Amino acid sequence: MTFNQRVIRFRNYKKLSQKDFAEGLGVTRQTISNIENDKNTASWDFMYKVLNKFPEINVKWFVLGEGEMLECENNIASEPAARYGKEDLKEKLISTLERENELLRQEIERLKQDGCEQKTNTG
Predict the structure, then answer these.
(1) Which of these ranges, 10-14, 91-95, 101-105, has the smallest mean pLDDT?
(2) How many domains does the chain have?
(3) Which domain holds residue 100?
(4) Has this prediction a pTM greater than 0.70?
């Protein structure tokens, strides 16, 4: 599930329109629309606003798509955003996104190598 799909899923779970979701976060409805339609990448400030406004969201799910959408008391891997100050959460988000970026780079390299091997085998 992509980030924009997670935003849509959570907003729908809360039964909020794009307008109501945007107003609650202090952003425009167009911002929500652009993120949900994958026209804009969400800023860390947007992520912070969502995580701060809705502490029930599992940070790992929201940022990485791992685990369950909602915070669960029995799930020690989930981390409520309320535990972090804005700068701490910013650093955590940066670290998490850097890890995700590295995993994507590794996957791209693997796919490139697989593509080269297939060309060699079929060529």
Answers:
(1) 91-95
(2) 1
(3) 3-122
(4) no
